[in-house]
Here is the input.
Amino acid sequence: MLSYRLVMRLFLLLCLAALLAFPVVANKFYLQLFSKIMILAIFAMSLDLLVGFTGLISLGHAAFFGLGAYMLLLLSPEYSAASLWLSLPAALGAAAVAALAIGLLVLRSSGVYFIMVTLAFSQMFFYYVTGSRQFGGSDGAYIYLKPTATLAGWAPFQFSNNLHFYYFVLVLMVGTYVLLQAVIDSPFGHTIRGIKANEHRMRSLGFSTFRYKLVAFVIAGTLAGLAGYLDAAQFGFVTPDLFGWRESGIVLMMVILGGMGTLHGPILGAFTLVLLQDFLADQTRHWLLPMGVFIVLAVLWLPHGLSGMVDRWVFMRRIQEARRA
Amino acid sequence: MSDRVIFFLIQVLNGVQYGLLLFLVASGLTLIFGVMRIINLAHGSFYMLGAYLAFSFAERTGSLWLAILIAVPLMVVIGLALEGLLFRFLYVRDHLYQVLLTYGLILSLEEVRSIFFGDDVHGVRVPDLLNFSVKLTPTLSYPVYRLFMSAVCIAVGAGLYLFINHTRVGMSVRAGALNREMVQSLGIDIAVIYRLVFALGVALAAFAGMIAAPVASVFPGMGNQILIISFVVVVIGGIGSVKGAFIGSLLIGLADTFGQVFARQIAGMTLYMLMVLVLLWRPAGLFGRTS
Here is the structure.
């Protein structure tokens, strides 16, 4: 009998193989759609580090997503393309610094205050960008030329090539997964999970929990910035809505729908939610209504997400097997 | 008095009026949190629905008063239905799920609004009875309807204060916020109290939307705008504190109004900066209890 963990690993590898082979069968539309989903999966995984592993429910994670996107706009010269190798690190750096500054303030609060204060901070960015002429105001702005990956005259890949972009995003998604898995398995990861389970106890054990939460907040913010940068690079367009509460809400839903506290959960959630949205939008102009109803029902009936449902099923099977033995 | 002083006074009046309106929305939000421990993102949607219902009924009946008279009970019924169908299951759940469920509810209600009323911006006429201004100087005047709004909000606020602090039911509400089990074991049906508080919160938010309709017009997304500002109010005042919501509302109303007038560049951000300052000073808000 194969262990559950091994089956899960094999299943994930199978999914990865399917994603690698996907461009063979996909047309341009689905290639772009899947690239978009994988970008959102990076965003959702970053939020899961806070919600699922540290126990911090942020309703303002889009602040860093939007920041990453707007950094690309800021760093793109009007008539030429930005360099990937300069603009990406700059965008990540900006997201990290913002996460550090905001984290220092918001982590003083907890519970409902944390939810509301993170929301308020992302709104602050939203209003700033909406009101500023430099960033295109409420209409948003175009990034006319996508960043180039040219390094010393040699270009390993093209952003404007859908296939290249697809694989670039896939590599980054897998990279994010591996990085976060390493973070979670490290002593640091054990500490933040301890904070989620019982912060008082961790503090009385001598851990300076504030610092651990701050580091988690900065890692999550930086990765959200990465996702935002990619989003802007894919569509060449940014709007203040990238900072909005709707973006924060939908990514939180991805985490919960897929199953928080696992890294494959947010990926699963991103795929499910975006494909569902795509399907519903084809059916009706009023697709937000069935979407909203779906979210409400999922919260009522699937408290542990889709992957939690599978876990539960496996658990019940085991009990049955044990009874038979 | 010089025109400049009068202009300043008008801004103060506007700020207070906006603050009092915010109080109607924020007090429901903070009560629902204080008593049931529910964080309700859909609270702004009740404000939006109230405004749209008032607009729709006022078009049909020709009278805003009649529209309010029909729409408030209707909103109470909608509130009770939502409580029975959805919110009832949230009382014992983690805040995370409350956030998500009410987020889904916002999307649904916004789309319901779009199906029934369309996506246009509508104006609602100020009732004839109050459609005039008082002259303050030869060049500056102030619309009476705004004064009337402030008066109504003060009356509702006073009623709320009397209800919570000086009636038997209000006493049960306060007790329910402090210790749910104790209240139950004393023979008070806490489920009824919860239903009552929820319906009260919905009615307050919807009523705010209705009386604001002639001044602020009726538009898609109006609910989310007021929700997030109400959040700021509640955070500043201390979550669960009605007194805090009152002080917070006035602070935010004045800060927003003066921000719009004197610092247009950063107008949208003044509220949030105020919130950050208050939280740096008191992390649980002005009247919040630290756990």
